[in-house]
Fold this sequence. Notes:
Two copies of one chain form a homodimer.
Chain A: E1 4-5, H1 28-37, E2 39-41, E3 49-51, E4 59-65, E5 68-73, E6 79-85, E7 90-91, E8 104-107, E9 112-117, H2 118-127, H3 129-155, H4 158-175, E10 182-184, H5 189-196, H6 200-212, E11 216-219, E12 222-225, H7 228-235
Helix pairs in contact in A: 2-3, 4-7, 5-6
Chain A binds a DNA duplex through residues 157-158, 188-190, 198-202, 204-205, 207-208, 220.
Amino acid sequence: MHEVISGLRHACVSCGLREVCLPAGIPADSLRLIDAAVRQRRPLRAREVLFHAGAGFECLYLVRSGALMSCSHEEDGSEQVQGFHLPGELVGLDGMAGGRHGCSVVALEPTNVCALPLALVQDMMVEVPELQSALMRIIARETVNDHLHVAMMGRRSAHERLAAFLLSLSERHARIGRDPRRLRLTMSRSEIGSFLGLAEETVSRLFSRMHASGLLEVCGRTVLIRDGEALRQVCHGQVDPCRPGHAHARQNHPPA
Amino acid sequence: MHEVISGLRHACVSCGLREVCLPAGIPADSLRLIDAAVRQRRPLRAREVLFHAGAGFECLYLVRSGALMSCSHEEDGSEQVQGFHLPGELVGLDGMAGGRHGCSVVALEPTNVCALPLALVQDMMVEVPELQSALMRIIARETVNDHLHVAMMGRRSAHERLAAFLLSLSERHARIGRDPRRLRLTMSRSEIGSFLGLAEETVSRLFSRMHASGLLEVCGRTVLIRDGEALRQVCHGQVDPCRPGHAHARQNHPPA
DNA sequence: CGGCGCTTTGAACTAGTTCAAAGCAAGTGG
DNA sequence: CCACTTGCTTTGAACTAGTTCAAAGCGCCG
């Protein structure tokens, strides 16, 4: 079952993601140990599966380029998208619970990942306490994200959810040096819907409305954020994006 | 800010929760170290706050008796209940993300907790690798739970949600040796609603319906599970609990 | 007793779903 | 190069699960 290919160039030290990835804040000499542990996995093609739910937990994976999506499966066959993972982000932690993964992870586009064999990670943590606390920090951040996600699913309207989703993507784009206003969504409407707890039709309609109101420029899977501030307001429920509110929309509404 | 009181009796070795709590699976000699680190906190009264969101992360807490509820706060003032914590369960892990807690935690009834000062935990992890992996396992399980929670908020009907909630409580009751059929809900309808992403009125109506259909016997905050198997079916969406389906009709006697 | 907070129930409403159909873009094979 | 398939997206129209608003009931405690 070893698809891991070692020997490829992968030095963390020279990696563009060093500052946002697991090694962030780890001293240079310890970094060399991590470097040695990291395996480069054969690149994934779009739609290719990194691991299936239920598979044995052997590695943690770091996204180097591309994008991943994780989703859990209900016994009735339905799927729930749990998250999207951009370069610099870590996936596979849930496997630590019981030695098997609880989610499947699939590539949304051609993707490269670094693999960290679990055994090596555990050994290393004893010798490199910084790694241990870094890992703890990352897991805890994961938890915080999940809580945000729950809070969103709990009480927010469809508009608020989509706005929050776009802003989160935008921020993460910024973190890795991409243009935070231009988003290339690599996932389908129905995947966004599943992630946000909405029907795909609802997502599609929202994009149309937000486009019409001038918040976004939507062209298929390419989205341009035209008014980030307004989007932030929508996200916090301070604005109802249905009624115009924006210059671009139809203005001939005779106010009551 | 140290409200921690040491010196009270608290030996893990003699604790009834040993097998379900953090120390599960940790060898006896290492256990003594943990034992020494654990501080007993003054008992919390109902509604008393263990820590506030934003407070510095100083301790992990283990529930000894009673029950806790954690909730996050949106900037608009609304609250989202993130979870309920029964004896043997750990709270406070989210604080590891940035040195402050992201949730507030409050007691639902008179509650005792054990406190594990963070500094001691970190020191110990270096010497007791079992503790490190135990902690990792617990955090990862947390993640898995959060994912279940998200999956529930995403696509399940109100009935399915409430059924899943009750079954989860029931299982956890069983784990700590309580009767899994008789639940004393220590939280209000609106707290359950927040947790499940429903209005409090909806929760109340569901209890009434499930009572009427003979699934449950509900008397205020005391719930008796009459037909666990059927409840499990509702939870998996195999049954629509609106239409009768059940012989037992209205019988509003308080469970003995 | 009287007041307060929680719960229940009813009735009206609406945000979002579902179902259905058409539009579009990319790929495939003749 | 075009016809055809396939999968995603958009849009419309009808529907409904769950919300919201309102009011009454119930327990509890000072």
